[in-house]
């Protein structure tokens, strides 16, 4: 039976302000983009939402007693994480974009009120995705024109949404070119610490010279993206006009679900894969981790969902067609360089695996997927940036067949449920920007060793999704 899905989140903005680092605390700075940053130059904003329970709260109480401290602690945190208050400056080709900060640059911060049901938004069942993707996360401010052909694009915006008598959420949108998930997580945890204890932990490292680029990979990536956008079929009016940011995504009728795999279920998946690899006389040590089996499970699930879509639209793909799995992998500690764990920016390589559609859809689909992902991780560890000059063009080629591409956002290693602004662990944390073949991973809030998987599917696919999940739990003895 399909679960009910409520209508879009009703939100009213009641306050807007700009938060800067303390005056005089950051010198005017220009930050070049490394090729690891340039890989994300045309990816849309990242979106993360934290929900906190607060019975009895109302908007006046929030704005008078909570909001001032959150803004003040944000200002103090931005002193050290100033790229989030800066702008991505995009000059005309062939010049490279760069991040620039000057006195007075700021983060747009808004307060909103919603009459939507807090408990429904923070549940696991199907919910209207527009509530997350559009209503609870701010849009980045409109790019400003610095000259006839040069644009400045803000890198972050924050929205607090109050749910009277229930709680509030913190929604953050940020430009991936400024920071990867680990850097963003460092920022949010630092902000939370400053809000509660008035102290920061480890400070970020902004030394871009740590990333060497003797082969000019940054220029290769920039040209790859510019050529892709030039040929993009989306209407030009949706583009920001700077030639490097992506067209806007048109909202669709989607629902969001959270699938929880407990520790026992994950262990059963591991046992299944290990038993199959041993039977096939293959090395059982081919990276059969929680991450691998979880991603394998979702990869196969996503392919089955895509097949249901093709069945309704009359589409068809050959069984030998390759499906692709791509996930980011943190390179800190893998580059053979003195790369601190606090390095701020992007330091990601690709975990890239492929498998035939027919094999993924077969009885051993999860085993096939797990082996492909495991091999990709082993290859990455031998040389995380081997062939980096071609990785962006390969990725863009895969974007042209979105039904065959599965990507991952987030990581259980981020420990998002440890983000405490003074109200304990979040009741829920969501990645807002998933969809279009991507899913999110969080650690499980209520069970150590479990995983929360965020998915966005078409509303009309909900019955099919519920059916294949129940079938999977029975097939892999994952009941309980």
UniProtKB/TrEMBL annotation:
Taxonomically, the superkingdom here is Eukaryota
InterPro entries attached to this UniProt entry:
CAT-like_dom_sf (IPR023213), Plant_metabolite_acyltrans (IPR051504)
- Which keywords appear in this protein's UniProt record, sorted alphabetically? Acyltransferase, Transferase
Molecular function (GO) terms listed?
acyltransferase activity, transferring groups other than amino-acyl groups
Q: What is this protein called?
A: Uncharacterized protein
Q: Which organism is it from?
A: Citrus x changshan-huyou
């Amino acid at each position: 039976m399909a679960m009910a899905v409520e209508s879009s989140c009703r939100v009213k903005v009641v306050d807007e302000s700009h938060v800067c680092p303390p005056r005089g605390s950051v010198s005017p700075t220009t930050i070049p983009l490394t090729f690891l940053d340039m890989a994300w130059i045309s990816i849309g904003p990242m979106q993360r939402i934290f929900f906190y329970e607060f019975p009895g709260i109302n908007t006046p109480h929030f704005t008078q007693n909570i909001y001032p401290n959150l803004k003040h602690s944000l200002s103090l945190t931005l002193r050290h994480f100033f790229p989030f208050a800066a702008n991505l400056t995009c000059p005309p080709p062939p010049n490279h974009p760069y991040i620039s900060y000057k006195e007075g640059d700021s983060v747009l911060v808004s307060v909103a009120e919603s009459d939507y049901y807090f408990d429904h938004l923070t549940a696991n069942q199907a919910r209207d995705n527009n509530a997350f993707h559009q209503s609870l996360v701010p849009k980045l401010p409109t790019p400003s024109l610095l000259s006839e052909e040069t644009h400045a694009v803000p890198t972050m915006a924050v929205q607090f949404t109050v749910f009277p008598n229930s709680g509030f959420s913190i929604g953050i949108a940020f430009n991936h070119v400024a920071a990867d998930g680990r850097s963003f997580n460092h920022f949010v945890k630092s902000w939370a610490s400053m809000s509660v204890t008035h102290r920061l932990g480890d400070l970020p490292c902004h030394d871009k010279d740590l990333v060497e680029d003797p082969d000019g990979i940054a220029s290769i990536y920039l040209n790859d993206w510019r050529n892709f956008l030039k040929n993009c079929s989306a209407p030009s009016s949706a583009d920001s006009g700077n030639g490097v940011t992506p067209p806007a995504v048109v909202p669709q009728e989607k629902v969001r679900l959270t699938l929880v795999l407990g520790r026992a279920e994950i262990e059963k998946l591991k046992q299944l894969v290990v038993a199959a690899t041993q039977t096939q006389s293959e090395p059982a040590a081919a990276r059969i981790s929680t991450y691998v089996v979880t991603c394998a499970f979702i990869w196969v699930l996503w392919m089955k969902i895509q097949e249901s879509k093709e069945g309704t639209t009359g589409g068809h793909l050959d069984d030998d067609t390759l499906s692709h799995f791509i996930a980011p992998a943190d390179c800190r500690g893998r580059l053979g360089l003195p790369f601190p764990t606090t390095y701020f920016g992007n330091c990601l390589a690709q975990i890239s695996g492929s498998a035939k559609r027919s094999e993924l859809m077969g009885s051993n689909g999860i085993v096939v997927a797990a082996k492909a992902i495991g091999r990709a991780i082993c290859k990455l560890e031998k040389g995380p940036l081997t062939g980096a000059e071609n990785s962006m063009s390969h990725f863009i080629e895969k974007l042209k067949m979105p039904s065959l591409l599965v990507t991952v956002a987030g990581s259980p290693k981020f420990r998002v449920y440890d983000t405490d602004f003074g109200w304990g662990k979040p009741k829920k944390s969501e990645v807002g920007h998933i969809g279009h073949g991507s899913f999110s991973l969080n650690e499980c809030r209520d069970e150590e060793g479990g995983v929360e998987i965020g998915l966005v599917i078409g509303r009309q696919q909900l019955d099919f999704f519920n059916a294949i999940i129940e079938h999977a739990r029975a097939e892999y003895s994952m009941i309980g």
